[in-house]
Specification:
Strand content: 15-25%
Distance between the termini: 13 Å
Radius of gyration: 15 Å
Helix content: 25-40%
Largest sheet: 4 strands, antiparallel
Shape: globular
Number of domains: 1
Order of helices and strands: HHHHHHEEEEEE
Number of strands: 6
């Protein structure tokens, strides 16, 4: 399986399972987490990632680089064939074991059921002790750089679960 997007093709980033990368991670989740971090930093710069995001969303590289036991196993139980693009209910049904209350840095509670029109994306997320990397998007948050587009990231990495976080920042979970 290979993850591709316009940005990946432009940057010649190989997201395949067997991609030869420089990583301290031993598991696939760790390697993909580090690849995602490297791609984000290459596209938007590490300073913006760690310092200019709102406090609850800062230090996202630590989230993406952390592999907590159980993430891969839980993600593997998702029936991806049930997930239809643009159909929020299909994602919710396929990921119902994950459709629970979330927190980011212990500060925001993610409502378990949200309306599709409230969706957007951000970097950094945590479900209890299971951590995920997510993608940054500017269209729902005027404080973020307008050059940031979710389309720049590999769509195959998106789990398609959407949240409204206090109507200030918006998030979609991505498994790495």
């Amino acid at each position: 399986m290979k993850y591709t997007s316009k940005l990946v093709e432009q940057e010649h980033v190989d997201f395949s399972v067997n991609a030869p990368i420089q990583s301290s991670g031993n598991t696939l989740a760790e390697r993909r987490g580090e690849m995602l971090v490297d791609l984000v930093q290459k596209r938007w710069g590490s300073d913006m990632i760690d310092e200019e995001l709102p406090a609850p969303l800062a230090n996202v590289t630590s989230y993406a680089r952390t592999n907590v036991p159980g993430v891969a196993e839980e993600a593997s139980r998702i029936n991806w064939k049930e997930c239809r693009p643009g159909d929020l209910e299909s994602y919710k049904n396929a990921t119902k074991t994950l459709w629970t209350t979330f927190k980011v840095n212990g500060e925001y509670n993610f409502p378990p059921r949200m309306k599709e029109e409230q969706s957007g994306t951000l970097i950094g997320g945590r479900r209890e002790r299971k951590r995920f990397a997510v993608v940054l998007c500017a269209d729902k948050n005027p404080a973020l750089p307008k050059s940031v587009k979710v389309a720049d990231m590999p769509e195959d990495l998106h789990a398609g679960i959407w949240f409204d976080i206090s109507r200030k920042a918006y998030g979609k979970v991505v498994f790495v």
